[in-house]
Inverse folding.
């Protein structure tokens, strides 16, 4: 039963955060969104939205850890087959390249958006243009940050798994060789 309580508690906390968010969103739109960016607004925004980000990061780290565990189990079931391990790790590396491409693409989008904004619209006083630019720039920036985080997590996972499993395989091979010498 205690195994079931922890996930239910975490889910309850997330539901409570989402409920509070939607309950107070109209007030936030009225009082905060029209404010100029200053230290108070930054602190409010971080405190308001960091809980969602932290929950997502925790979930992502859990997923990566589970995938690493499955790789280790498959490797063990296949009697520590190094070729299979290399194939599995290659998939992880391919995942890295996917996110590196995404980082490059999102960065190009952000640069193009910023260039157009400042070359064409810098003197235009339009709340709509400011809103579209700001929201797009923030979204793209956080997409880049998320992709960088993915690269770090996947890269670390591939590195840890490969170093650990290859060192274990070398130890097993050495022990097996020593048995034959006796």
């Amino acid at each position: 039963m205690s195994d079931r309580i922890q996930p239910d508690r975490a889910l309850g906390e997330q539901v409570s955060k989402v409920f509070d968010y939607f309950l107070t969103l109209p007030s936030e739109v009225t009082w905060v969104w029209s404010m100029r960016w200053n230290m108070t607004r930054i602190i409010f925004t971080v405190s308001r939205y960091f809980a969602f980000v932290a929950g997502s990061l925790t979930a992502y780290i859990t997923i990566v850890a589970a995938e690493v565990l499955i790789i280790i189990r498959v490797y063990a079931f296949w009697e520590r087959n190094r070729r299979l391990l290399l194939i599995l790790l290659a998939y992880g590396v391919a995942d890295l390249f996917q996110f590196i491409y995404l980082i490059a693409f999102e960065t190009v989008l952000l640069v193009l958006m910023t260039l157009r904004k400042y070359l064409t619209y810098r003197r235009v006083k339009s709340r709509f243009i400011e809103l579209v630019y700001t929201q797009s720039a923030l979204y793209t920036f956080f997409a880049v940050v998320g992709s960088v985080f993915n690269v770090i997590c996947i890269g670390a996972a591939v590195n840890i798994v490969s170093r650990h499993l290859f060192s274990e395989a070398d130890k097993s091979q050495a022990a097996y060789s020593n048995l034959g010498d006796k």
In short: The chain has one domain: 35-181. The radius of gyration is 24 Å. The chain has four helices and no strands. The mean pLDDT is 77.
